[in-house]
Batch of 2 targets.
Target 1
Amino acid sequence: MKKTLALALAVVMSLGLLASCGPKEPASNSGTNPPSSASQSQGGDASSIPDAPKEGGTVGVCIYKFDDAFMTTYRNSLQEILESKGYKVTVVDGNNDQAKQNEQINTFITQKVDALIINPVMTSAADQIIDLVKTADIPTVLINREPTAEQMAAYDKLVYVGCDAAQSGTFQGELILETPNQGDINGDGKISYIMIQGDPENIDAQLRTEYSVKALQDAGKEVEQLNLTRGDWDRNRGQEIAANDLAQFGDKIEVIFCNNDDMAIGALQSIQQAGRKVNEDIYLVGVDALDAALSEVMNGNMTGTVLNDAVGQATEAVNQMELLLNGTTYSSGNQSVYVDYVKVTPDNAKDFVK
Ligand code: BGC
């Protein structure tokens, strides 16, 4: 048994996937801690890990909506990894509708799937979801939208796999601080920005918004928020919001922070239509490292982005699912497993093209 655990740990550590494990780090921690010895049980109770993984079972995967650029890469990767390991996988589209997703979870429960991987539509619905899977006694990995530790504590066969959203915000702020004029293009002593936010119900949107600006302030910079608008992670919304703000604030805008790349790519269209030039008279940053964004970083149309490692998270989600299938249980406060974000600049962007 010890050998199996050692092997599992070696695999996880050699993949270098885990940023931190166990209780969510305080938000001020950028999540770069190596796994501590306490976290080496991968969030579970080491004593409960049995000998061999159960393979060839059935897995239900619920995605909040298929029409999301980042979650498309993520779900394809999940499906590929699960199928390559011999699982029978069904992936369903929640269409951004929590009631619909609850029905899908119920259908998977009726079908008696061996495990569930769920990307909740609304984090605020986590209690309902956890209640459903707990009552049905189905091992469950939650992904991408993190509930609170208290919510997860209700069920010991439940684990969350994701990233420390604060870290991605900090990296965005650092990308601006690394520019020649540190974001103050017009030299008036302050960084004037607009923020294009994802879905504000989502912790990723909240913390990226907060920590991108905090990084500037922590570096002693004065900041001025010209506008903050909800863009729901959507490219078209990013384009519309940037167009409106560029019309309203014009040259005052020095930085456009977007909570994700899809909105940044939309914003780029409006920047170009307004005759502005990224990295000359305006800066633009996103998160995710979508292929389209990596190209724009390489050709100078985006200042930078942050790798949100879809493949790494999918790999870790399957790894945690197998631990659950093997009988691992998770104690309260040890139910979040994080994969590191990586700062992406023109220097390293090519390393992340898929
Ligand atoms: C990604 C977004 C995505 C969202 C979905 C975030 O982590 O950065 O691109 O739309 O997750 O919940």
Note: Residues 58 and 113 are 5 Å apart (CA to CA).
Target 2
Amino acid sequence: GWALFSVRDAENVAEGLGVPTFRYKMLAISITGFIAGIAGSVYALQVGFVTVEGVFNLTVPLFVIVMSVLGGRMHWLGPAIGALVIHTLRDRLAAAGFEGVSLVVLGLVLATLVLLAPEGLMARLRIRPLPVAATFAVAVAGLALTQVWGEPLDWVAAGMVAAAVVAFLPVPRRRLVREVVRLTADEPEADAAPEADADAATVPMPVAADAGPRDAPGAGPRADAPVVVECVDVARSFGGVRALGGVSLTIREGELVGLVGPNGSGKTTLVNLISGAFRPTAGDIRVAGQSIVRLPPHRIAHLGVARTYQIPRPFESMTVRDNVAIAIMFGRRPLALRSARHAAQEHLDLVGLADLANARPSEINLHERQLLEMARALATRPRVLLLDEALAGLSPVEIDNAARVVRRIHAAGITIVLVEHLLRVVNQLATRVVVLDQGRALADGEPRAVMRDPAVVGAYLGRAGGQAGA
Ligand code: ADP
Ligand code: MG
């Protein structure tokens, strides 16, 4: 289910975090096709007469959607409750001769729910079970005793409507979020932190005591550290546009490589190629010695490549914590939901988002969304983390904070490729700088030396300068 949620929210992102999206989509289609096939054969046998109109009418899927939105999609019981309520209502409306109105009623119900209560009934039933049950009982009993209107099924339908109204009365948001989180955990006391959780204990990465500003950038890894990523003459064209024209690059364990270059120089394309989002048109890319150019992105993620997006792409329907937990559930060493949520906290701590764990991505600002990107990528336990302009669009204070987080991640032992416009930040952080220009590596080496390179100065100050420098 979580794989499918993540596919719905952002399929490519899910794949990049290690979710085998194709397999899960095939599974979902096969299972639902099987169920629908059985239902269809029963239906056809019973009705003895099947029309296109009766089966493929737009209202058939509409009813299914209303049922699951009304009940709540986070738990299997939700759609079941929704089906019970909607079917009873529809039946009663038809019996009362309002068949034509039932579509209008359903449309109103759907619009109201999507706007005001997208979590559905289940979560709310668990917040005030007794008042809802009491309302239902009083309404049904009242109608039965007074006999003012209708037959028994009408009383039940009226009771359901009254109970639903009570269930949907306003509740504090925090309470609601907690209930939704519990629902999806299938455990009533989820917020009691799992005590000695053996699984989770193996997960947290070594959180280095904040190393503080490292005075000597360039205090890089040894020159003979193992190679993590090796690009050999990598090229990529889009139609006639040559985004990368043969880049060779070796990244060793423990490095923090600053990848800089003017707009359109191919930085994001390189990130896309190493993470498998695109295939190179020529050349080879090896991660930990294995060629990845024919692997699907989720396999590359399992080999230890994680990336963030220039424009953050969180799973909007999940809490901040679950965004991170997904990466753990489908990572190299997958954990079950409960342990994954517990372990997610470590990564949120590392980037400083612990207090926002229960927020939705839409409720946090750009800086926090970019930190979430990092936490989510870290949760895959990467060998190498590709940060694509993780500091773009931030205020100076936020940039300093983000830089501290990057430093902390690096200090925790993760190799980083930092794509960044701000040379000041790159100079502070990077152990090595690679300059791309027009799809080629213009320079590669120790940050200060690279920045003094006339060709680099030229590329940044304009072509004319570049030619003069060259
Ligand atoms: P950077 O991240 O350094 O600003 P990009 O890697 O995004 O640069 O882009 C490099 C070049 O490739 C640009 O000319 C861009 O227009 C082109 N490009 C990148 N992605 C695509 C794509 N999906 N389709 C077509 N052209 C693309
Ligand atoms: Mg870019």
Note: The mean pLDDT is 87.
